[in-house]
User: What shape does this take?
Amino acid sequence: MVEKPRIKLPPEAKKGEVIEIKTLIAHDMETGLRKDKDGKPIPRKIINKFTCDFNGKPVFSADLEPGIAANPYLAFTVRVEESGTFRFAWFDDDGTVTTADGAIKVT
Amino acid sequence: MPASIRQGVLDRPLSRAMTATVTMGLVIALAALFGVAPAAADERPGPAPLATGDASARPWKRYDGWPDRDASAFNSLANPHASPPAPTAPRRLDGPVTGDAGNGAKLVADRTRGGSCLACHVMGQAGNADLPGNVGPDLSEIGNAGLSDEQFWNYINDARVYNPSTIMPPWGAHGLFNDKEIGDIVAFLKTLKVPAKFATDVDDPAKRPAPVEKRDNLDPTTNPAMWAVDDAAALYKKRDASSGFACATCHGDPAARFSTWAAAMPRFEPRLGHVLGVEEFVFRHAKATTGANWPMESDENIAMGVYLRNLANGQPIKVDITSPDAKAAYERGRLLADTKVGELNFSCRDCHDPARGGLKWIRGQWLGEPKGQLDHFPTWRTSLNQIWDIRRRFQWCSVAIRGNELPPDAPEYGDLELYLAAVNAGRTLSVPGIRH
Assistant: This one.
């Protein structure tokens, strides 16, 4: 089953507050270093990049490497100055880009 | 045998359920017309319809990645008389044992032979003394104990000749070590004369702290098994193409209908004559009503098993073991928990009863006691990226002790699950769990 990514962020924050965002996506993160039963290498297939934009401006990004465990979990902090929408994107080796949005109200 | 068995369905054939639903649809429409809230669910009185037949794949095929060794020469829970009988008397040796102590030192740490001696015994500096277990006695000074070569030899070959209730595997009698290798191990044991020294406290099983699971297993960003809750919530509402019915058609609001249901499972099912757990029930009931095919251990079945218990989270486990049939099933489960299985010849209690191996270490792995082993199942296995229900856990126990598992719907597992649930009575459900 294809699972929707998980996002956890506070629905509201005060202007200038530093908030924590937690993200989780279902992915095997196949390293490319393992071999199957017949001794053939299993091709690499990982999420190689993660980005987070806020109102169109990049606020966080990460390059992921084959050493990252399955179902990558990323938590990071962002200072928010205005209400708006976070756009999260996970870039798969196969070209697939999975996105998710999360809104926050800043007072 | 109830008269209503027809075409592999027990009670209330689908056609009657369909009629009921059409009627209820009319009732709901009328209720809407008159502004009256309809009843939440369209459940008819009487026992739940159940499909008969196998609830999992036949022939049962072991999961990918599990050891493929066949252990049909040894006991399983379904066949407790397959293993060779225990020798009745110690073997008399012609003379002193002449073995290679150096090779013995290697053999006691050889994990390919059923886990090695160090899995259960501290043995001085053997295997560099890294992470030995403490299920069996510390053998670091066994060389001073005054045992004869014959006693040493027979203890390893088959300790039952001295102690019929021993939990030590019959290493020789079950063919894990040959006569010469046992001689080598004896020669090594005779060299053990000084207490073990541990480089760190965690190497000492007496001081190694028991593992504690502190993660918030119900936090969706912590526990990937929470995806199964989402999946099953969608399945609950999805109409099966064969019938046009979903779970929701009859059961309505899941949170209201299933707030306690799973805490009373498993239960003895008189129409089938065996104990029915949540997963087997899901298969049989869905098959008989919506027509959905969710055999045990399929993704859909696992997800529904997680979901139905998740809806009952916080409820204390409370199963019926008082009716005569349920009491008999509980009694069978209790005996199964004491049935020796596999080449290593362990029963559940040998490893998990605190009077035996429970609350001790087998090398780096902690053996939990039966209480506390059910409330978090099905559980996420972080080491495997899989959700395991309690039946798969039973299956792995059998394979890990070099025995053959049973299909997940085996009646023996039903009895064992009922016994385990009774032992865990009062523990509150917290599903999906998360474990290494």
Notes: The first strand of chain A starts at residue 6 and ends at 8. The domain at 6-35+43-106 of chain A is CATH 2.60.40.10 (Immunoglobulin-like).
